[in-house]
Amino acid sequence: MTDKLDLNTLATGVPGLDTILGGGLPELSFNIIGGAPGSGKTTFAQQIMFGLAGPGRKALFFTAMGEPPVKMLRYQQQFGFFDVAKVGDSVEFITLAPQVEEGNYDAVMAQIQEEVRVHNPALVFIDSFRSFIEGARGDQREIAALQAFVQQLAAHMSTWKATSFLIGEYSTSDADRNPIFTVADGIFWLSQQLERSAMSRKIQIVKIRGQKQRPGLHAFRIERGGISVFPRMMPVVEASGVTPATQLPRLSSGVPVLDQMLGGGIPVGYSVLLTGPTGSGKTILATEFLAAGAARGEHGIAALFERGPHQMMNLKLDAMVRAGQVSVMPVRELDLSIDELLHELLARIDATGATRIVLDSLTGFELAIALEYRDDFRDALYRLTTVLRARGVTVVMTSEMQDRFDSLHLGSNGSGVLVDAVVLQRFVEANSALHTIISVVKVRGSRHSREFRLFEVTDDGVLISEEPVPFDGVLRGTASLRVSAA
Q1: Helices (H), 158-302
Q2: 431-476, pLDDT tens digit by residue?
Q3: What is the phi/psi pair of residue 274, to 5°?
Q4: Average pLDDT of span 98-121
Q5: CA–CA separation, 79 vs 406, rounded Å?
Q6: Cα gap 440→444, rounded to integer Å
Q7: CA dist., res. 14 & res. 43, Å (int)
Q8: What per-residue string of b and e applies to 331-368 under the rule 16 or more CB within 10 Å gives b?
Q9: pLDDT over threshold 60, residue 66
């Protein structure tokens, strides 16, 4: 054989799945879909089936479960992918439960082979023999016979002129000791993890022959439309390196004095952290950033992790939303994955052409994403900022900071290291009043002011003093500052 054969791939119809498969599902492949009960295996398989089945592409769905197919279909019909018009025409449901329960595996195999011969299907699904292996009654000889039957079935499925799937309650540890995994062309693992009240679902393409899959665990969600997969996004390192901040265009923060303190504004594509205690004006300052863009005709996105649309941050933001200058993205689910958030943000960027994003706040963001991501929050934040920067989007994030007056704490998760610029707000007590001061901690690759300035929110907007706050010495607490009451 000297001619190269091209691998024909099928579009599965599951959003995001073809991406992690490396382009689609190889035609005529034998695949295993494994996972714990409730992980979404049957829904996943049927969504692929209804997405691929059609005229000239018949699908057979064998069920070995004890419950009748009509019960399963009653629930599957609730999903948007389910097409009643295909049932009985392009899709056939066939039960094998009576023969399996009797232990007559020769009859089961004969029925499967006869149905395949008669219908000549392009797609075959068998759900599920694993439960009968685990629950088989009888001596070890009977259990061994059932296991041998499943292995024989897998061998047959790998030779049919059909794309086939064996579905069952398998785990990743089974791959090391079950021989059917050696003949499988594709292996899909579905998992779910529940911690407290948060649920996260993941899919992993353990194996797919003939093409390069996207490695790792990928989040997926089951909703009324069916399953959506959110491929894990990894930052792309540019071969040409990073453009120095001095060569990047600058954006206004919305406050001229702060622009001066930043060295001329915010470099395009930078991520800026506004950190300070509750009530110091972080959200108001972030709104000024969006307003500056709106004044230039730029669209912005405000991702709210602590409030819903009915709890607008302030009147100025509300006005920009009503004018169509800013889109609000409320984050509701406590099991949100970083990749799901990124996919939604990028979709909104593509739809609106947004160039400015506000994340309010990182504290809420850390609570909004799934618990399993909170242990690696730095990785989540790094991927978020890097992917958005690659799209040329400038991001301003707010973060809660405990003000101890005598020390600076930018956060326990080290977020200050991962962003390009940090703006710090603090409270000071002077002249029987509470005042806010603001300073620029860093702007990566750029000169910037290191002075403390008075910060105030008024009816006319944000005011920052032109002159720095005078000191009597090293900043240790409120007694070291002379703040005028004027």
Answers
A1: 180-183, 256-261, 282-295
A2: 778 889 999 999 999 999 999 999 999 888 899 999 888 765 444 4
A3: -100, 110
A4: 85
A5: 57
A6: 11
A7: 11
A8: beeebbbbbbbbbbbeebbeeeebbbbbbbbbbbbbbb
A9: no
